[in-house]
Structures are given as C-alpha cells and as structure tokens.
Design brief:
The chain is α/β, with parallel strands linked by helices. The protein is built from ten helices and seven strands. The chain has a seven-stranded parallel beta sheet, sandwiched between helices. It binds NADP nicotinamide-adenine-dinucleotide phosphate. NADP nicotinamide-adenine-dinucleotide phosphate binds next to helix 2.
Length: about 300
C-alpha cells in the first residue's frame, strides 16, 4: 500500500529530482535540464567529481573513503599544512584501492579567501564539482563569555562562512548541468541550544536552516542539499585533552563511529534526504523530543547534560 504523501516526505525526503521517473518536482517526466540517464532511483556516485573538506581526519576522511569506494573521484582538503604528508600517502592508497583520482589539497578555510582558493585548486584538477561535502569544522568547550572573541570569529569563519561560500561557488555550475549534491555536515547540536559550546551549536543550527531552505529553492533543478546531523562521534574533534572525556550526555548517546556516520551520509546523498540524523535513538532525542519540549526546558536539560563531570 502506498503511504500518504506527508508520510512519504518524512520517510524518504522529497522525490529525487535526479531520478527521471520522478521528474524535478516529483511529477512524472524527466527533471528539467537533467542529463539523460537510465532510469534509477538513486543519485549515481560513480565517475562523479567530489570535493570533500575536512578530509584529513574524522567524518570528512570517512566520507571520502565511502565516495571513492562508490567510484567517485575526490579532491580532499586538509586545513593544516603539517597534515599534508599523511594526506598524500592516504590519497595515493585510496586512489589505487578504488581506481579513482584522489587529489590532496590544503587551504585554510578560516581565511577570508579560503573558499575561493579551494575552489580554484579544485577547478585546476577536476572538470567540475558534482558533489560538495562540507565537513571542515571547529569546536571548543567552554563558556561563551570566557572565550576570546577571535576564537568565536574563527569558528564562524570555518563552520559557517566557508560552508555557504563553497555552496555559492559550486551551485551555479550544478544547476546549469542539471545535477549535483551538497552534503553539509551539521550536527545534532543544531536542534537545541548547546550550553558550554554555544557558538558551535549556533553555527550548526545556521547550517541546518540554510541547507533546508536552499534545498527547497533548488526544486526542479536536479540539485539537492542534504544536512547530515550526527550526535557525538569518535573523532579528534571531541576525543582530545581539551574536550571533557566525561559528559552526562555520553551515558545516553554513546560515541558514534565515523565510518558508520559516513555511510549514513552517503545514503542521504544517494537518496536525496534533506536531513539525516544517524541512529534511531538520536532521531528520537533530536528530531522528536525538542518538538515536544518547551525550548527553555531543552536549554536547561542541555546545560546539565553537557556539563563536564569531575573525573
Ligand atoms: N565529532 C563529533 O562529535 C561531531 C558531531 C556532529 C558533527 N560533527 C561535525 O563533523 C564535521 C567533521 O568533524 P570531525 O568530527 O570529523 O572532526 P575532526 O576529525 O577534527 O575533523 C575536522 C576537519 O576540519 C578541518 N579544519 C579545521 N579547521 C580548518 C580550517 N581552518 N581550514 C580547513 N580545514 C579545517 C580539519 O583539518 P586539519 O586537521 O587538517 O586542520 C579536519 O580535517 C565538523 O563539521 C563537525 O562539526 C562532528
């Protein structure tokens, strides 16, 4: 039996504009301007050109692994020059394992012209960008008023400005070609306030809202924007001496594996899911609970759940 249309939207996102059966607006017939493809229900990854930021570690690196495995060529960005040697070795191994082109790149996205520099470097090695994975990100633990303004501004530059600038750079080409995907790595922190890392949660809420809105604007173009919203993941971002190893929240949420999160990210890309929250209990904690709980109470609970516990 066919589900009612609101249920279909919730379960599978909007109909795939890359799918000639659905049509760009979910109506029958091919997407306007979409390249001609055999009938299929998912976005093809093979022989696509992907730009992955934050690829020197964690979720970005795992995303590049999964995309290369699916046959996509990848430009992989590190932020730190000192990571380049390791990135080069990994990229060459990835390329030979999956017989795709993998280009290691380095640029600092906290600089004003960082995104433009990255885009120019990708254009020099790839004919186009079909897939953009915005995964570079910063986080620090500590109360807002105790943290230097420069640090807040750097976070905004990397977590917000670089995301939107790269999207703005790649989207016109994708729209012209009638196909493309952007995966913005937001966070479960986007769904409620996050005391003790307030700027981080605020930056992720921005990315989620921007992704959902632009995704709607792109109806009929064959291009989609997905927001991937994992809860805490075992990566250097939070597994480091400056981030508390013990939060009350961890006893409920645990720490997810970056490879599993990346698998969910790739699934969201292929299926054209506007928002993906990996893990059933995280869907409950972050999609359902905040809608049932008064915002003030959500903030109060988060304050205690995210407070560092004494060792
Ligand atoms: N870990 C979690 O619990 C969690 C949960 C939800 C969402 N996320 C999000 O997932 C994304 C990836 O984070 P992760 O957990 O994989 O952390 P990670 O392992 O620390 O990776 C962060 C990546 O961002 C890059 N980066 C940082 N500053 C940069 C800059 N100025 N210019 C260019 N690149 C820069 C880093 O490059 P270098 O190391 O080379 O500088 C690194 O590749 C982030 O957006 C994060 O907010 C993480």
């Amino acid at each position: 039996m066919k589900a009612a249309w609101p249920a279909r939207l919730f379960l599978s996102g909007r109909p795939d504009a890359d799918n000639p059966k659905h049509g760009a607006d979910g109506r029958d017939g091919p997407a306007r301007g979409a390249e001609s493809r055999p009938a299929m229900s998912e976005y093809r990854l093979k022989e696509r050109y992907a730009l992955v930021t934050g690829a020197s570690s964690g979720i970005g690196r795992a995303m590049a692994e999964r995309l290369a495995e699916a046959g996509a060529h990848c430009a992989c960005l590190a932020g730190s020059p000192e990571k380049m040697e390791t990135l080069r070795e990994w990229a060459s191994d990835l390329a030979s394992r999956h017989r795709v082109a993998v280009h290691p790149l380095q640029a600092d996205l906290s600089l004003e012209d960082g995104p433009e520099t990255v885009f120019a470097r990708v254009e020099a090695v790839f004919p186009r960008v079909d897939i953009l994975v915005n995964s570079a990100g910063l986080m620090y633990y500590g109360d807002f008023a105790d943290t230097a303004l420069e640090r807040h501004e750097r976070l905004l530059q990397v977590n917000v400005r670089a995301y939107l600038a790269l999207m703005r750079l790649v989207l016109p080409g994708m729209i012209e070609r009638g196909q493309g995907r952007v995966l913005n790595v937001s966070s479960a922190s986007a769904f409620q306030p996050t005391p003790h890392f307030a700027m981080y949660g605020a930056s992720k809420a921005f990315v989620l809202s921007l992704s959902e809105a632009v995704n709607q604007e792109l109806r009929g173009t064959g291009v989609m924007v997905c927001a991937l919203c994992p809860s805490h993941v075992r990566t250097p971002m939070i597994v480091n001496p400056d981030f508390p190893g013990r939060l009350w929240w961890y006893s409920l949420s645990g720490l997810a594996d970056p490879d599993e999160v990346a698998r969910q990210g790739v699934r969201a890309l292929k299926k054209g899911r506007p928002v993906s929250v990996p893990g059933l209990r995280h869907k409950f904690f972050h999609l359902l609970l905040p809608r049932l709980t008064p915002r003030r109470l959500s903030g109060y609970i988060s304050y205690h759940a995210l407070k560092a516990r004494k060792p």
